[in-house]
Amino acid sequence: MIYLDNGATSFPKPKGMLHAMNECIKTYCGNPGRSGHRMSMRTGEEIYKVRKDLGKLLHIDDCSRIIFTANTTDALNLGIKGVLERGDHVITTSMEHNSVLRPLKSLESNDIGTTIISCNKYGMLNPETVRKEIKDNTKMIVCTHASNVTGTIMPVKELGYLAKERNLIYMVDAAQSAGCLPINVKEMNIDMLAVPGHKSLLGPMGTGFLFAGEGVKLRPLKEGGTGTKSRDLIQPDDFPEGYEAGTINVPGIVGLGYSIKYILNMGVENIKAYEEELIQTLDESLRSMRNVTVYGPNDCRKKAGIVSFNINSRSCEEVCDKLDDVYGIAARGGFHCAGLAHKTIGTYETGTVRMSVGPYNTKKDIYAAIEAVYQLQKM
């Protein structure tokens, strides 16, 4: 199988990640923060190391502000619903994943308003259009770092400056960027960052986290055991324990920790350059085909490792089935949990075929994908 669905989850994973998870389960997997025996203490130490390495990767000084979650969706819900209050206003974009838009929609009944800024047909955003929509009660700007439909990279740094200038909370969805695009929360003025473990960080499914910077007042969305202040009946709001109620996914986080070290060793800039080279070859070749329409920016420096396209007169689902059944290529067809993004780029009725690369893909994979699409568009 040629795997080109890394935008959904990365595959394969580093072999050492599996060993680290197995070693954890076999030898020391106590419940961190719940007991004082050596297994529990060892587990707590390993979890602390993962937080420190994440801080190194993302330039986070206070790693206690990293809250482990089940996935990016959990992190986005915690950041959005844990900050916004009745009467607040938030600004977002038309290229967002439903994990941003649906939580915002659900808050409308609490008198929380949302302005959705329209991007252009390439999925690109003009920061000045955001500036013009800021109101007296605007509290937050939330946007994706890179679109999961087209890969379009948003002007994250510019929006961060704008948010800081206007004293707004700035939240970034890094589902398609963490691990393959450089992120510096200090330089980008990011107040909250929602990240999956299982995509470009090359970790296991069921892992993710929310970074909530100093000064962000965050309400816990879950109440339960934290291992701290156990005699109190009110959920503590200490970082990170107050926001990690219940037992966290220790083997998954340990596996993620191994993958973080792997990425730090490879270098995010090197991963970005490699994936950009792959995606440029794929993008340019598909655009040269008469019966293929490619969406998103022409300049591959302006997008993450994603190419979204359609073969004229053929449904995206049919194309993906053929790619799988005939050519052994894994891609994703449909609307990618981002209906407004498809409306923005003009594929609201059809969806698209999405191919997304990772650091384990090769030029040979890309050439095979190009040949497969070429054959399919001739039929």
Structure description:
The protein is of the alpha/beta class and 379 residues long. The protein folds into two domains: 2-10 and 268-378, Aspartate Aminotransferase, domain 1 (Alpha-Beta Complex); 15-266, 3-Layer(aba) Sandwich (Aspartate Aminotransferase, domain 2). The chain contains eleven helices and 13 strands. The strands form three sheets. It has a seven-stranded mixed sheet, with helices on both faces. Strands 9-10-13-12 form a four-stranded antiparallel sheet, with helices on one face. Helix 6 (156-165) links the parallel strand 5 (138-144) and strand 6 (169-173). Helix 2 (38-58) packs parallel to helix 7 and helix 8 (268-287) runs parallel beside helix 11. The longest helix has 21 residues, at 38-58. The model has no long low-confidence stretch (mean pLDDT 97).
